[in-house]
Amino acid sequence: MTVDIKNVLVCDAVDSACVELLQKNGINVAYKLKLPVDELCKEVKNYDAAIVRSDTKITQQVLEAGAGSLKVVGRAGAGVDNIDVPAATKNKVIVLNTPGGNSISACELTCIAIGTLARPVVPAVQSMKEGRWDRKLYSGSELYGKTLAVLGLGRIGREVAIRMKAWGMRIIGYDPITTEEEAKAAGIEKMTLDEIWPLADYITVHTPLIPATRNLVSAEALAKCKKGVKVVNVARGGIVDEQAVLDALESGQCGGAAFDVYPEEPPKSEVTKKLIQHPKVVATPHLGASTAEAQVRVAVEVAEQFIALTGKSQVYT
Ligand code: NAD
Ligand code: MLT
């Protein structure tokens, strides 16, 4: 199957490598970032394809506005949560993504988050900038010998496991699809969730947000954990129950948490805002894929898939 792609609308800030590659291959590109929804609905009619990251929402309304012209939506990233895939299918629009391009970056941010929960580097740096010298306040704990639970043993979960094992952590994990052998190859002891909760010193989630994973780390789960368990979410807002973590931080059941993703972005709810302000929380604004390397990779991958769809051989220079 080939698709005639002549004009592409780039809706979010993707690396220029994407635009350059498309143009070299004879595809016209318009760069119109963060259009309000009514303008996006007007614009989308003029294009065969659109490229987004996570800011622009490709809703049913947008897809219906593009009906008859829009044939492909490309996501320069892994999750397609911001694209209404059933509505796209109904409107005969192909949805494609670049699932592996930013895995290492998301994995590395996760490892950094785990490190900042073990050693309070963030508040210590702030204290130095404020002219203080508080050595006693910022003592931490070693990761060596601690147990890390990885929930979701796909691309990112396994990379996190491999790296944190090198720090001397015991890695346990849960995934309904990944086999015990695949888990073992990444140094992970596969277990049930009920076996995991009481063993974990740290929990990190790496699943998509689907009904089965919403509130995977819940109040009930946290209550079954060791006192002081630490939680990391660099996957999708909603996989970790934010209210449950907030309550557990207050009671001391949770010893710290790191979030890169939120149920609404930018965060709006009072719960998320309280969590971000909590002294034991390290919060970053969805930076998992924000590295030079990942952005070039996803940009090139999305462009290459568009060119492949046209059925023409790719021009590189
Ligand atoms: P992946 O598809 O490779 O792996 C996901 C794994 O989750 C799969 O192995 C799957 O079997 C497992 N899973 C599904 N349901 C589960 C359940 N109920 N319990 C436990 N595991 C379950 O995905 P990935 O590329 O590793 O990405 C993981 C997450 O990270 C996604 O949500 C993705 O959108 C997110 N992500 C975030 C950033 C960021 O910037 N913060 C960057 C890249 C990816
Ligand atoms: C993804 O799904 O790839 C990430 O969340 C990163 C991004 O939104 O760019």
Note down, in words, how this protein is organized:
The protein is an alpha/beta fold and 317 residues long. The chain has helices spanning 16-24, 37-44, 60-65, 85-90, 103-118, 121-129, 155-165, 180-185, 193-196, 219-223, 242-251, 270-277, 292-310, and strands at residues 7-10, 28-31, 49-52, 72-75, 94-97, 147-151, 170-174, 189-190, 202-205, 229-233, 254-259, 281-283. Helix 1 packs parallel to helix 13 (292-310). The chain starts with 6 loop residues before the first strand and ends in a 7-residue tail after the last helix. The model has no long low-confidence stretch (mean pLDDT 97). Residues 78-79, 99, 102-103, 106, 151-157, 174-178, 206-208, 212-213, 234-236, 260-261, 286, 288-289 line the site of nicotinamide-adenine-dinucleotide (NAD). Belongs to the D-isomer specific 2-hydroxyacid dehydrogenase family. Homotetramer.
Describe the secondary structure blueprint for this structure.
Blueprint: E1 7-10, H1 16-24, E2 28-31, H2 37-44, E3 49-52, H3 60-65, E4 72-75, H4 85-90, E5 94-97, H5 103-118, H6 121-129, E6 147-151, H7 155-165, E7 170-174, H8 180-185, E8 189-190, H9 193-196, E9 202-205, H10 219-223, E10 229-233, H11 242-251, E11 254-259, H12 270-277, E12 281-283, H13 292-310
Parallel strand pairs: 1-2, 1-3, 3-4, 4-5, 6-7, 6-9, 7-8, 9-10, 10-11, 11-12
The structure holds nicotinamide-adenine-dinucleotide (NAD) and D-malate (MLT).
The site of D-malate has 8 residues, from loops.
